[in-house]
Structure formats: C-alpha cells, structure tokens
C-alpha cells in the first residue's frame, strides 16, 4: 500500500541530547500502524518531530508526498496540523476548566459555534464515545481518566483528519476503560482513517495493529505486519524484551 506518511533518516536533537538516530518509518494510507518499543526508545519524540514540535535536525518527513519536516523545511506546527494531521499527546492536553462541549468547539477551527459543526460528524463521535454526549456540559477536568482520553481523541476528530497520531491512549486506564478504548479505536479503523499509535499495552497492539514498527535507541529496528510479530515469541523477546503471550 502507498504510504501517507514517510520518515527517511530522521534525526532529532533536544538541546545537547541526540534522541532520534536516523528514523525510517512508513505509515500506509488507511491502516493503523503501531509504534512499539521500550521506554526511552524515542517513540514520543518521533510523534513530536512529525508535528514539528521538536524539529528534525537531519533527514526528511513527507506527508502525502509533500515535505513537512526535516533539514531545511520550515513548516510550522499549525501548518502541519492544517495539512490534515491531528495529534493526541500522552498528556491528552484537554482544557480542564472548560466543558466537554467547549473543548470540542475549540478544536473545530472552522466553527464559531457548536451549531456550525457538522451534525453527522458529532453524531458519529457520540456513537464512538458515548461519554462525550453524556457529559456534554461537564467541566472536562471532572471526567475520569478514560473519559478524558476519549475526549482527547474525539477532539482530534471533530474535523476530518487524514492522519491521527496517538500517544499511549491506554496508559493508566482501568481494564474496563481499556476495552472501551479498543472498541472505539476499532470503530475508527473501520472508517479507513490512517493512524500511527504509540502503545505499551501489547494486547491493545495485537488487537488493533495492521502494521508495526519497533524502535530501540532512537531508531526503527523492525517493521512489518503486526500479526506476524504477535505470532513470533522469539522476535517479541528480542525486540521488546517480553512476550505478548504474557499479557493475555
């Protein structure tokens, strides 16, 4: 399949620290690609570099055939977002003092009022994330951790996006909320939305991933199909230091 997002030899420095060491990554259009690796491997830095929050010092990042990052490329984070990429950080980044409704409205750049947001799209979000509708007028800060994560993803999808970057959506959630999150992301997959998902929960990775890239020490050390990795205990041990079977 053709790649919607492509990273070629991407390096990222943060101050005196050299974090990414020549990352090569392909994200096929219409698929959910898992980005796995041990803590500190460079996964979050990769997402932030794609968004231009930390500029790549070397290499190239292409989105739909156009350079959006890399040496000599000046695309800003707002420009990258406007090209059709949404980012859900690990911190979720919701506005705690605003209501759920107000959080979604802020993310809808083309709307000045909630009435200007496409009704069918809101109904679609309510179907995927029922808590969003239930707590529509609640301050977002009073939601549970799982509900906040649902809001963060719904906010990224309130307008059509071509690519969604999500950083560890199941982190810190109770098992029941993880199941709800997986169900919602499965619904999202059915829409052919292209997703790059960082995850530490390997059951989530196995259930959702089409493709997979594994990072170690700031570079991609393996890329392939998630189903193949899920069936190969030796490869899991070698690349990740543990087995998916131990998370059943």
UniProtKB/TrEMBL annotation:
Pfam families for this protein: ABC_tran
ABC transporter domain span: 5-242
Top-level taxon in the UniProt lineage: Bacteria
UniProtKB keywords: Amino-acid transport, ATP-binding, Cell membrane, Membrane, Nucleotide-binding, Transport
GO annotation (BP), single: L-amino acid transport
SUPFAM superfamilies, per the entry: P-loop containing nucleoside triphosphate hydrolases (SSF52540)
Gene Ontology molecular functions: ATP binding; ATP hydrolysis activity; branched-chain amino acid transmembrane transporter activity
InterPro entries: AAA+_ATPase (IPR003593), ABC_transporter-like_ATP-bd (IPR003439), ABC_transporter-like_CS (IPR017871), BCAA_Transport_ATP-bd_LivF (IPR052156), P-loop_NTPase (IPR027417)
PANTHER family: ABC TRANSPORTER ATP-BINDING PROTEIN, HIGH-AFFINITY BRANCHED-CHAIN AMINO ACID TRANSPORT ATP-BINDING PROTEIN LIVF
Family: Belongs to the ABC transporter superfamily.
Name of protein: Amino acid/amide ABC transporter ATP-binding protein 2 (HAAT family)
Organism: Roseateles toxinivorans
Lineage of producing organism: Bacteria, Pseudomonadati, Pseudomonadota, Betaproteobacteria, Burkholderiales
């Amino acid at each position: 399949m053709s790649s919607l997002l492509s990273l070629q030899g991407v390096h990222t420095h943060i101050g005196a620290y050299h974090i990414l060491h020549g990352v090569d990554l392909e994200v096929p259009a219409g698929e959910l690609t898992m980005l796995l690796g041990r803590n500190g491997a460079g996964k979050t830095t990769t997402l932030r570099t794609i968004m231009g929050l930390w500029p790549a010092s070397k290499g190239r990042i292409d989105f739909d055939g156009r350079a959006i990052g890399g040496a000599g490329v000046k695309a800003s984070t707002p420009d990258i977002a406007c090209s059709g990429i949404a980012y859900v950080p690990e911190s979720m980044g919701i506005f705690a003092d605003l209501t759920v409704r107000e959080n979604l409205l802020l993310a809808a750049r083309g709307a000045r009022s909630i009435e200007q947001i496409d009704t069918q799209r809101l109904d679609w979000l309510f179907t995927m994330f029922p808590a969003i509708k239930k707590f529509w007028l609640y301050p977002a800060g009073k939601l549970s951790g799982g509900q906040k994560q649902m809001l963060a993803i719904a906010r990224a999808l309130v307008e059509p996006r071509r690519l969604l970057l999500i950083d560890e959506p199941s982190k810190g959630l109770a098992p029941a909320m993880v199941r709800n999150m997986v169900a919602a992301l499965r619904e999202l997959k059915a829409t052919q939305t292209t997703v790059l998902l960082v995850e530490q929960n390997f059951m989530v990775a196995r259930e959702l991933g089409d493709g997979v890239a594994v990072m170690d020490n700031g570079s991609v050390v393996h890329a392939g199909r998630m189903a193949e990795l899920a069936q190969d205990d030796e490869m899991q041990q070698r690349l990740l230091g543990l087995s998916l079977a131990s998370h059943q």
